[in-house]
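Feature request, filed as a ticket because there's no other form

It would be nice if the structure record came with a short human-readable summary line next to the C-alpha coordinates. Right now we just get the raw output. Example of a typical job, pasted below so the devs can see what we mean:
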Amino acid sequence: MKITFISNYYNHHQDPFSACMSQMEGIEYHFISTELISKERTNSGWKDLNRSRPYIIRAYESPESAKAARNVALDSDIVIIGSAPDSFIIPRLRQGKLTFK
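Raw output as currently delivered:
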Protein backbone atom coordinates (compact mmCIF):
# COMPACT_ATOMS: atom_id res chain seq x y z
CA MET A 1 0.00 0.00 0.00
CA LYS A 2 1.28 3.45 -0.91
CA ILE A 3 0.57 6.23 1.61
CA THR A 4 1.57 9.86 1.07
CA PHE A 5 1.44 12.85 3.39
CA ILE A 6 1.48 16.28 1.72
CA SER A 7 2.18 19.54 3.51
CA ASN A 8 3.95 22.83 2.96
CA TYR A 9 7.18 21.61 4.58
CA TYR A 10 8.36 18.74 6.74
CA ASN A 11 8.67 19.61 10.41
CA HIS A 12 8.86 18.12 13.89
CA HIS A 13 5.07 17.75 14.04
CA GLN A 14 4.99 15.21 11.18
CA ASP A 15 8.25 13.46 12.04
CA PRO A 16 7.03 10.81 14.55
CA PHE A 17 4.09 9.78 12.34
CA SER A 18 6.23 9.75 9.19
CA ALA A 19 9.05 7.79 10.84
CA CYS A 20 6.60 5.09 11.95
CA MET A 21 4.86 4.92 8.58
CA SER A 22 8.14 4.63 6.71
CA GLN A 23 9.13 1.60 8.80
CA MET A 24 5.88 -0.34 8.47
CA GLU A 25 6.04 -3.54 6.50
CA GLY A 26 3.98 -3.42 3.31
CA ILE A 27 3.81 0.40 3.30
CA GLU A 28 5.53 2.56 0.71
CA TYR A 29 5.55 5.94 2.41
CA HIS A 30 6.25 9.38 0.95
CA PHE A 31 6.09 12.89 2.32
CA ILE A 32 5.66 15.66 -0.24
CA SER A 33 6.95 19.06 0.80
CA THR A 34 5.45 21.78 -1.39
CA GLU A 35 7.62 24.70 -0.28
CA LEU A 36 10.77 25.77 1.53
CA ILE A 37 10.39 26.49 5.22
CA SER A 38 10.05 30.25 5.70
CA LYS A 39 12.81 32.43 7.11
CA GLU A 40 10.34 33.52 9.77
CA ARG A 41 10.12 29.92 11.01
CA THR A 42 13.86 29.26 10.90
CA ASN A 43 14.55 32.59 12.62
CA SER A 44 12.24 31.52 15.44
CA GLY A 45 14.17 28.28 15.95
CA TRP A 46 12.51 25.75 13.64
CA LYS A 47 14.88 23.49 11.72
CA ASP A 48 14.70 22.98 7.97
CA LEU A 49 13.94 19.25 7.87
CA ASN A 50 13.02 19.03 4.17
CA ARG A 51 16.23 17.06 3.51
CA SER A 52 16.26 15.02 6.70
CA ARG A 53 14.53 11.83 5.50
CA PRO A 54 14.83 9.74 2.34
CA TYR A 55 11.05 9.57 1.84
CA ILE A 56 10.67 13.35 1.45
CA ILE A 57 9.93 14.62 -2.05
CA ARG A 58 10.64 18.34 -2.44
CA ALA A 59 8.08 19.36 -5.06
CA TYR A 60 9.33 22.96 -5.09
CA GLU A 61 12.86 22.16 -6.28
CA SER A 62 12.23 21.81 -10.00
CA PRO A 63 9.54 21.12 -12.60
CA GLU A 64 10.72 17.48 -12.62
CA SER A 65 10.34 17.21 -8.83
CA ALA A 66 6.88 18.79 -9.02
CA LYS A 67 5.84 16.30 -11.69
CA ALA A 68 7.22 13.36 -9.69
CA ALA A 69 5.39 14.60 -6.58
CA ARG A 70 2.07 14.89 -8.46
CA ASN A 71 2.54 11.39 -9.90
CA VAL A 72 3.21 9.92 -6.44
CA ALA A 73 0.23 11.78 -5.00
CA LEU A 74 -2.09 10.57 -7.75
CA ASP A 75 -0.78 7.01 -7.62
CA SER A 76 -1.02 6.65 -3.82
CA ASP A 77 -3.71 4.52 -2.25
CA ILE A 78 -4.16 7.04 0.57
CA VAL A 79 -3.14 10.70 0.76
CA ILE A 80 -3.18 12.80 3.92
CA ILE A 81 -3.07 16.53 3.29
CA GLY A 82 -1.98 19.12 5.81
CA SER A 83 -1.54 21.88 3.27
CA ALA A 84 -1.39 21.45 -0.49
CA PRO A 85 -2.27 23.27 -3.69
CA ASP A 86 -5.49 22.18 -5.39
CA SER A 87 -3.40 20.63 -8.16
CA PHE A 88 -2.60 17.82 -5.71
CA ILE A 89 -6.15 17.46 -4.40
CA ILE A 90 -8.60 17.83 -7.30
CA PRO A 91 -7.25 15.03 -9.54
CA ARG A 92 -7.49 12.56 -6.64
CA LEU A 93 -11.03 13.60 -5.80
CA ARG A 94 -12.10 13.32 -9.43
CA GLN A 95 -10.84 9.72 -9.41
CA GLY A 96 -12.59 8.96 -6.12
CA LYS A 97 -9.33 8.17 -4.31
CA LEU A 98 -9.12 8.08 -0.52
CA THR A 99 -7.95 11.57 0.49
CA PHE A 100 -7.91 13.12 3.97
CA LYS A 101 -7.58 16.86 4.44
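Something like this underneath would help us a lot:
Strands lie at 2-7, 28-33, 56-58, 78-81, 98-100.
The mean pLDDT is 95.
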